[in-house]
Structure to design on (720 residues):
């Protein structure tokens, strides 16, 4: 994979999309995602009621998103009653201000971070650096990409694009460790280095998988124990969450825990499930609740499902485009099918209007989504918006082409005429010195169909 | 709105009565580039007792524009389709993808009840044979090693997989071979194939290699658009020149 492009400030860089057109994903990524996807399917197929769970989760999320305003207020009230300080952030900038401010108020110079995609959205590490605060990622994959100066390529398994050899070389270079590509050895190295960080840090950060509105509970799931340590070792804990991460009541949680582990990593349950209800005595807990474009989804009634996502990564693993393009090609924090659905809402179609087109609409994503987001249908919906609203996909020439096509397809005589032209074009193509545009895109690796004798309709008229 | 993984709605209706006419919907690319699939479809249906008609005003289902985001342009075409097929109770199409457009997506573009209703009367050929006519053995004979590729729209929007498989497996002297990763997309995706050609070709390449690995001499599909794409890759590869692609209807029309 090429060197990671940095995209501080500008959330979406045009050049990053190249990988969607000409795949640049690593072999390691392609193989790992294929393996994960097969594993995921096998594990979910074992559960007879899996489809019922998906329907239930979808219904719970639908209720949550419809009642988000009330539930957020209830959640805040219950958190505050437990002595938690709740901060609201309309965008990444405000969220960063809150976090840096909390760090300054508490005299923090060193931070340990559990995995949080919201933190990636905010480019929080960049802001910590600017504020002179040392921040260390503690999730193994995040730790690796941070050491490498890269970005996650996957929302659950951030270093999926790197092989064990790559990591061994990285640890040798950055940590001065003897080279090894042995998995267990590498995790021991990371653990040894990270342990000191937990003890040094004055502040710990985490994401939130589920916020339970009825009790003001933060639910965090993980496998490595690093999030638990990040939350509980330093005296200050700051949790970051998007506004959509709520569940109305604790009774709604089990179905999601069942789905998330199986769909994300093929586990029946993640190793750790933390329930955090307020801070322990003598400690502080802050919850920063972030919009950062999410309310844009609420404005588009056909798109609400985009907010149901629980960030399991199953659609990434299942997606043949993601497997080849890799995560960075999508240009922002959320790659893969859900990224192509979510990012255009979060950063605007003018920035991310190409993403919904990065799909063959095969539907593998929708098939595996544990909360039944109709991703392929969402993609077509966003395509419709992208060609009608300011976006890189709005084009007068393309509009004209489809207008002419539409005219030609509304009558049999016009159809015959248009098709005669197409047939002539395909017949002449082999004699052309080069193939322009879309024709060239087809013939660079694929033979054109042979033009047969009369069309079916002609045959029908004669003999049918 | 249907969700992937759930079979698309099909109008509840009385079963097919012998003698009821069946209208062919022959998608534009089949009409122009693969007319033999159209004739094979007509032959198959006739052989199983269906009077076949071909409404000559038909053009396209509107899918290319719909998938590209040009819904207003697609709507006009869809309405033309609905007018053309308004009087036909049974509409059969030798493409899973175009059938999915009619049955699943018409309603996304045009909420008009009549339009949606016409869309719901469209059946993919193998689905019509197996589910509606109850035919699983077409009497065909095809002494070759055959793999099956079901296009994604057929597979995931229509829930098609068992029907083409049963039809294939009842063909005499046919040796059915499994395609590795059979349910993975071949990368055609309509305009995706020319909008993101590098990715599309990489996916097609994987499919072609899987066909080669399966040992099949022939790869059959209810969707010739997929075959046009990865068959086009197979046709260019000297190591794969023994592999033929064939629409299911053509194969089912082979007799010893």
């Amino acid at each position: 994979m090429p060197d990671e492009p940095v995209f501080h400030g500008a959330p979406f860089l045009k050049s990053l999309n190249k990988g969607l057109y000409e795949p640049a994903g690593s072999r390691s990524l392609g193989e790992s995602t294929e393996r994960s996807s097969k594993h995921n399917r096998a594990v979910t197929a074992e559960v007879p009621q899996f489809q019922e769970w998906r329907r239930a989760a979808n219904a719970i999320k639908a209720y949550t998103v419809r009642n988000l305003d009330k539930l957020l207020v209830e959640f805040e009230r219950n958190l505050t009653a437990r002595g938690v300080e709740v901060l609201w952030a309309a965008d990444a900038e405000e969220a960063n201000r809150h976090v840096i401010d909390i760090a300054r108020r508490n005299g923090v110079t060193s931070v340990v971070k559990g995995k949080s995609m919201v933190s990636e959205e905010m480019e929080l590490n960049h802001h910590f650096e600017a504020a002179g605060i040392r921040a260390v990622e503690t999730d193994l994959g995040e730790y690796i990409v941070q050491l490498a100066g890269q970005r996650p390529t996957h929302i659950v398994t951030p270093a999926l694009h790197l092989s064990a050899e790559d990591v061994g070389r990285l640890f040798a270079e950055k940590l001065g460790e003897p080279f090894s590509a042995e998995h267990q050895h590498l995790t021991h190295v990371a653990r040894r280095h990270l342990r000191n960080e937990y003890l040094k840090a004055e502040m710990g950060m985490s994401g939130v998988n589920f916020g339970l509105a009825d009790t003001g509970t933060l639910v965090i799931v993980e496998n490595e124990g690093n999030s638990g340590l990040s939350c509980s070792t330093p005296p200050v804990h700051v949790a970051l969450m998007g506004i959509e991460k709520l569940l109305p009541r604790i009774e709604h949680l089990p179905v999601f825990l069942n789905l998330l582990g199986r769909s994300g990593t093929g586990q029946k349950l993640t190793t750790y499930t933390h329930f955090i209800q307020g801070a322990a005595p003598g400690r502080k807990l802050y919850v920063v609740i972030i919009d950062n474009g999410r309310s844009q989804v609420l404005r588009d009634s056909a798109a609400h499902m985009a907010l149901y996502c629980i960030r399991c990564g199953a659609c990434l693993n299942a997606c043949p485009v993601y497997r080849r393009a890799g995560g960075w090609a999508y240009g922002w924090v959320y790659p893969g099918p859900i990224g192509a659905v979510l990012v255009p809402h979060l950063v605007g179609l003018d920035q991310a209007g190409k993403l919904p087109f990065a799909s063959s609409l095969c539907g593998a994503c929708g098939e595996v989504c544990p909360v039944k987001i109709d991703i392929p249908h969402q993609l077509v919906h966003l395509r419709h918006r992208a060609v009608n609203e300011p976006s890189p996909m709005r084009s007068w020439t393309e509009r004209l082409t489809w207008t002419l096509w539409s005219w030609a397809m509304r009558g049999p005589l016009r159809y015959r005429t248009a098709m005669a032209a197409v047939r002539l074009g395909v017949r002449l193509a082999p004699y052309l010195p080069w193939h322009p545009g879309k024709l060239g895109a087809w013939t660079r690796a694929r033979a054109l169909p042979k033009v047969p004798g009369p069309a079916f309709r002609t045959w029908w008229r004669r003999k049918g | 709105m249907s969700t992937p993984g759930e079979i698309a709605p099909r109008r509840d209706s009385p079963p097919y009565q012998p003698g009821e006419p069946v209208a062919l919907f022959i998608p534009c690319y089949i009409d122009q580039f693969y007319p033999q699939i159209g004739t094979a479809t007509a032959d198959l249906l006739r052989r199983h007792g269906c009077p076949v008609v071909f409404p000559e005003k038909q053009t396209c289902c509107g899918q290319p524009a719909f998938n590209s985001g040009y819904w207003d342009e697609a709507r006009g075409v869809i309405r033309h389709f609905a007018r053309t097929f308004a009087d036909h109770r049974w509409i059969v199409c030798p493409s899973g993808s175009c059938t999915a457009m009619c049955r699943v997506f018409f309603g996304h573009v045009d909420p008009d009840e009549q339009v949606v209703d016409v869309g719901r009367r469209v059946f993919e050929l193998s689905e019509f044979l197996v589910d509606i006519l109850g035919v699983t053995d077409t009497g065909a004979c095809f002494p070759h090693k055959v793999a099956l590729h079901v296009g994604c729209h057929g597979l995931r929007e229509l829930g098609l997989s068992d029907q083409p498989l049963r039809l294939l497996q009842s063909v005499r002297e046919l040796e059915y071979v499994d395609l590795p990763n059979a349910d993975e997309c071949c990368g055609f995706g309509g305009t995706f194939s020319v909008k993101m050609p590098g990715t599309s070709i990489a996916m097609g390449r994987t499919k072609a290699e899987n066909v080669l690995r399966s040992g099949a001499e022939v790869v059959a599909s209810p969707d010739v658009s997929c075959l046009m794409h990865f068959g086009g890759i197979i046709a260019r590869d000297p190591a794969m020149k023994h592999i033929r692609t064939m629409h299911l209807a053509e194969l089912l029309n082979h007799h010893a």
